[in-house]
Amino acid sequence: MTDEERVDPPYIADERTMLTTWLDWQRATLLQKCSGLTPDQLREQAVPPSNLSLLGLVRHMAEVERGWFRKGVAREDIGYRWVTEDHQDADFDDVADVDDAGVDAAFEALRDEIGRARHAVAAAATLDVTFTRPNRPEISLRWVLVHMVEEYARHNGHADFLRERIDGVTGD
Q1: Is residue 9 part of a domain?
Q2: Structural domains in the chain (count)
Q3: Given CA atoms 18, 155, 28, 91 in this order, what sign does their dihedral have?
Q4: Residue pair 73/131 in contact by the 8 Å Cβ criterion
Q5: 134-147 residue pLDDT tens
Q6: Computed from CA positions of residues 43, 4, 25, 117, in that sequence, does the dihedral angle turn out positive or negative?
Q7: What is the pLDDT of residues 53-102, one digit of tens each?
Q8: Rg (the chain; Cα; Å)
Q9: What are phi and psi of 76, to 5 degrees?
Q10: CATH number of the domain within which 114 lies
Q11: pTM for the whole structure
Q12: Which H helix or E strand runs over 146?
């Protein structure tokens, strides 16, 4: 199975399996929507006046995976890859001048963060494991998994519009 191959979530399963399988389905959906495009197409901000691009979505989701699973659930003391204090939307905004190697690096970063996120989830004793973030209440792994399904689903909708504008491809 490649990252772009989606496996349908089971209709009956325990909660952890259900949530992680749906999250993997959403992850694969984003990668699938990006497949077969050139680096220039991935960088294209195809739905003006929005600054969204498929590359920006990939970079953003790498940052989101990193933030919730590594910085949150696993409590790693790490920074972000693209986002800075001075530029909170760098993952979205700074894609126009990214060379082809930077495009490949963004997909590698997303796949790496997904792998590390899966490890953090597997290492958690239960979905009730919690952590805190600045200016937020206590957060459970369960909340993070539900939120990540929602986050990918929302951005996969954006990816639908972008992909259709870029080359006319539509799909679920």
Answers
A1: no
A2: 1
A3: negative
A4: yes
A5: 888 999 999 999 99
A6: negative
A7: 999 999 999 999 999 999 999 999 999 999 888 888 888 888 877 888 89
A8: 16
A9: -80, 140
A10: 1.20.120.450
A11: 0.94
A12: helix 141-167
Domain presence at residue 39: yes
Tokens of 35: 């497949």
Residue 130 pairs with which residues in a beta bridge? 140
- Strand-pairing partners, residue 139, are 131
Q: Which domain holds residue 60?
A: 15-167
Distance of alpha carbon 27 from alpha carbon 162, whole angstroms: 17
DSSP string over 62-129: HHHHIIIIIIIIS------SS--SS-TTHHHHTTTT--HHHHHHHHHHHHHHHHHHHHHHHH-SSTT-
Say which residue the tokens 């659930």 belong to.
73
Residue in the structure block whose two tokens are 């979505």: 57
